[in-house]
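Can't attach files on this board, so I'm pasting raw text. These are the components:
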Amino acid sequence: MPLTYDTLVSVLAEVTGVDEELITPQTTLLDIEMDSLLLVEFAVVLEERHGVDLADNLDLTQGSTIADLVQALAEQSPNAAAAPSTTAAQ
Amino acid sequence: MTRDVAVTGIGMITPAGIGANATWQGLCSGQSFSSARDPLLAGLPVDLSCPVREFDACHHVPRRTVRRTDAFTHFALAAAQEAAADAGLTPATADPTRIGVVLGVASDSFTGVEKVCDRLRSGEHHLVSPLFLPRILPSMAAGEIAAHLDYRGPNFTVTSACASGGHAIGVARDLIRSGTCDIVLAGGAESGRSPVTAISFARMGALSTRLHDPAGASRPFDRDRDGFVLGEGAAVLVLENLNHARARGAAFHGIVAGYGASADAHHPVNPHPDGGGLQQAVRTALSDARMTPADIDHASAHATSTPAGDVAEARALNRIFSTAPPPVTALKGSLGHALGAAAAIQAASALLTLKHQAIPPTANLDHQDDAIDLDIVRKAPRSARLRTVLTTASGFGGANAALILRTP
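---
Top answer:
Structure tokens for the assembled complex are below.
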């Protein structure tokens, strides 16, 4: 299953228990209470389901936004074809 | 200082129902809630279980919590919330640092352990979920209750296999009696519906293999019993310092009047043939309650439906109550065996028994074992004047716990 922006938001919603509608590119990790454990869990789900290999930890803080997360994913994942793009975001 | 501790709230999630009232009605129906072909146990030689039905964790627990926690934690949170609401606990009721949580949980839940083992074997270490450990640990249920309800006092989990819930209530009672806490939420939570748990008990020969008659598989004290049925659930009591409860005008379900704990010091998993340790625990509880055997109006037995265990417990009761044991019931005929939660479910049910002045029947008791000389309630609830109930529990390791509950 290709990793689109919508899929990414859906995984974020699943991992954090936050409604998908509340997750926008401007939402911060703090807003959705994405702590370090959930960030690792998020990476596990991405690799298991979407083959996105995150060799290193994502360089993010609690103040990082979903747009930052998308950017970091694109930079880190060698699976470039699966890298998400922000163009789908409203 | 008063020795007695009040019970001001009850919460239960069991195969008989969601909530204490539904559980009570289910128990009084006399039916067994066990069934075959549990999808969680698919492919195992024994796939019987007594599941909690029609329980949507998201109705009781935030979705975020549901996703990263296991069934036993969901049951514990739901039961704790019911108990706290029943007791009328609000943030202003007590200093949160003086409200504790003590739960009995027998083991790790084992959920996802197969996947972790697969990842280890294949060297895919980076694909092991960081939520695995916090999901399965027995201590998580008590911790989640504290986090969700803001109870900041002592918080720990007691483990003595199938006696865990009884010891948790006893230890919690002592925290109040000693003055350490004003209120303790005490009970047990467990789900036995795990392939690891099921195959392990099956290999020990502990489980019923009555696959042709799932609803008749759990039959404590019956001559045709052949083992227990794995169950699940949680029960949580709000235990409260008597004066604290009176000062806020709380309603009492009853009093924890006596508690006794003992070790068989006999065998890793077999009960002492005469229930020697169990007798000692009951005598300690009687002494603690300043009662004699004649003061006990009813006994809710541990009786899991294993051939050896039920006989040993019956012998213990006959020794303690040398003249005439009071009427006995065994709830596991209806509920199966919820392991670490079982003794807490018995204690909560005993309080409901006092409230309703009726003893729920032992399901599936069609032909009482000739070797068991007890007056066992069967088929329908029995009305009786009841002031006290004894509940007993025994676990692997040889641990025993006895509680005496009485009317306010």
